[in-house]
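Checked the freezer inventory, then went back to the computational side. Two predictions to log before the end of the day. The first one is the construct we discussed on Monday; recording sequence and tokens without edits.
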Amino acid sequence: MTTQIRQLLAQARASGDADAMLHAGATALQAGADEEAVEPVRDALRRHPRHPQLWHLYALLHRDLQDLAVSVEAFGRAAELAPDDPMIAHGRACVAYEAGLPAARHFERAMRLNPSDRAIVLRHAAALIAEDRGEEAIGNIARGLARDPRWLEGQAALARVRWLRGEQEGFGAGYEKAVAAHPRDAALWRAWLELLIQVGLHERALAVVARARAAAGQSPTFDAVEAIARSERGELAAADALFAGLASLNDLNLVVHNLRHLLRAGRPAEAAALGEKHAPSDPTHHVWPHLSVAWRLLGDPRWQWLEGDPGFVGIYDLADSLPPLDALAARLRALHLTTRHPLDQSLRGGTQTEGDLFSRIEPEIVALRKAVVAAVERHVASLPPPLEGHPLLLPRRGPIRFSGSWSVRLAGGGRHVDHYHPMGWISSALYISLPEEAERGTGEAGWLKLGEADVLGLDLPPIRTVEPRPGRLILFPSYMWHGTRPFEGGERLAVAFDVKRPG
């Protein structure tokens, strides 16, 4: 496929035709062959410097390459040449936001050019929050929901913003208003219930399930939510009966929750059988972490194949290659704008930055990303050879891209509950600032632990614990359970990211 794309790009370059290069470049972009397309498109721009669609394509290529400084500049040029193009306006706004630049005004223009696209409303809200205009963001989403309470993406966004602003009790008021107006809409009830499960409000979810059945009738979705909530609350017998009744459903999300239930219920052999059936073909990457736990509980040596190799975990002290840690810490603290942890994240007693940290173009963040990429490349080069069927030891291992990056700021008593990262290939913890030793507490307070899975209520020790130090980067498989020990006082400021699976 790459050879065919190179030929297509070469033909378009030789022709000198702008439209031919647009077609070839778009084909390369869709196929993930961004690097191959950059130079031919740049050459076409030298010939056609006032072609807005070529500038748009050039901007998209660099966005995909996670080179946002160039993308911002190219989108600006495209917008100058085609100020009324809605796609260019929307793309320019998105890239400005991702780069950490003021973007609300760009989204406002994009909305004027394409008022029917409600996705722009949500991205505009994110830009407003980044500019400390959260009330405006809430108002804009709420007005959209007043016109259409069944706008599920809007309901989810409004609940998320309210939660981040500290409205723990009333964060779901939009859902409550919507189901009151449309009590027979099962999709609304389902979305509200899924959010409650995601947040871990299982008792509240059970109460809402009862109301949903009374209003909208019986549904396997409602049974699934009840099964999950009862299992998470420790009502194992009741959950067992519900999961048994749902066994015929072909729902991978339900399979994962059933795995959690079987492990929590002390039935690792059943969990292993279920996990072995689904893990090799699981596109969501949720099954492997649970299968590993089952194998460990059973004493099955296959867990060593999956995550027991010490070389799977890398420890790199990067202080000398990072920007000055005090300056980097100051930059990161300025990005922590919310008052509580996100709805669906593992941290407790702290906050997390919004957006993709490594897309930002401040000098400290650019230098941080450069140091991280070099360390990840070093780690990947040290991994054992490719192994068929192994979720870490892939045959293709580059280029290094990120599926997410963020900063976490924990206060005294803060910690990460055990979790894993289904969107990543390799995950991380990079420590920027730590409490003074006297504030941390004794023993392994604040340490990273790998392989414990405490959220399942199991007596399973960690595979490994690692001491944090300023400038220390720890890399590990994304499917590996990980969390942190709580610490007593002070601040722990860290950066985390997920390396994207190549290919």
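The second is the one RB wanted added to the comparison set:
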Amino acid sequence: MTSHTAAQPSPESRQNSRKITRNFAVLTLGQIVSRSLAVISNVYLARVLGAEYFGVVSFALTILTYPDLIVNAGFMRLGPREIVRDPSRHNVRKLVRAVITMRLLLSVVAFVIFMVISAILPETTDIERRATFIYGFALFLVVIDIGWVFLGTEQMQWVSIADILMQIVTVIGTFVLIDQPEDLAWVGVIYVVAQLTSTVLLFVLYIRRYGAPRLGVPRSVWRPLAKAALPLAVTRSMATLNLNFDSLLVGLIMSSYATGQYGAAYRFIWVPSLLLAIYFSALTPAFDRAYKAGLESIRIVLDRSIRLTSALGIGVAVGGVITAQKAFDFVYGSEYQDAVLPFQILVVSMAFMFINRNYRVLLVSFEQQGAQLRLIMIAAITNVLLNILLMPRYGLAGAALATVASEAITLVTSYGYVHRLIAHVGFGRHMPRVFAAAAILVVTLLVMDGAHVVVQVLVGIAVYGAAMLALRVITRAEIERVVGAWLPRPKPPGGV
């Protein structure tokens, strides 16, 4: 019997693979630059503001995610999917008009909710309350945030450029305006201005290509759009609750100092999780097209994705646990040592998250939003209950354990739903080789324990990459495909 991996890829599968590789390369290049800038600004803020005021910043951003859900309303996922299925100019303009109109109405509701929540926060000083208020104005920018259009049309370069511009503004503003804890309120101003710069860039590019959008949308358009967006919006709400209920509860029942420690731990988790989001932004259009062409059109791409994300997630988890102590001391300083243990627990969730995202995206692409919603609700309820049970007893470590448990449950349930509703998409057969490569990484990092953490991490990455190549977790052809996507294509003979 011929296995799927041995089968010859179809022309459509090869085209999907090239598109995914190109999109991923563009987004990754942009994110390497923008996330590096974001790390610089966050580390600077953590050191200058101190754990207590850095906790205020972390908590304000956590609160903001909930009214932001109201404005986004599932359109960030629904919009690209609808454009992939019909990229005509008329359909794009119709979608943008509908989304902007509905978001405008929702933004007012979301802003009022954010202001009320900020005003009634317990044990908040005037400077902390003012600093939190400022973030609320970013909700109005979501109205004209049309980065989803460029994701749907697979013009990933503009999304990357906008993100880099946002981080450049953030870094410049942070270094110019923040040099003491009393500058806390300026952090929110910088955040809003940076978001504005990025949003306006994409909005102007959209106007140049499609014309200025108008407001107002007929019932025949907004009703089916809202109906399709509702389960996605609820799912995203549950996913957000699952993602940061721990941070919310830490901010509500523990001190600003503890919130700052947990926020510092999450900043380390933030980088690989954002890279994961980028990867699936590049992969999602191929999954969406497979809804019509059938799962077999992306079977090889899907198998490769699960193999690579498994290896990366487990590598991040192993490396994070072993190097955490020295990494936090090097990056944040001695004030943030209480963040080390929560981080070591949180980083384990990366192994589950990197794998389960394949199944979650596949469910939405194949119109199984109901299943996606159910599995996220299960994970969110588990997360909330475990946080309530564990945090009072174990503090920040208990919050981190709840996150790991919820991601593990998400993997199990998403795998089960895909198997039952779409097709069998396994991942277990890749695990022996991935675990063998991870074991080599563990030995390497432990042997180099006396080295500087930067040297230890770089050598660990090189050894892990070589182990994955030797064990055929990744192949030379896949590496060449990625490298080729980053390089300009040579012109064909006789071409212009």
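For RB: Confidence is low (pLDDT under 50) at residues 1-7, 485-489, 491-496. Residues 11-426 form one domain. Let me know if you want it refolded.
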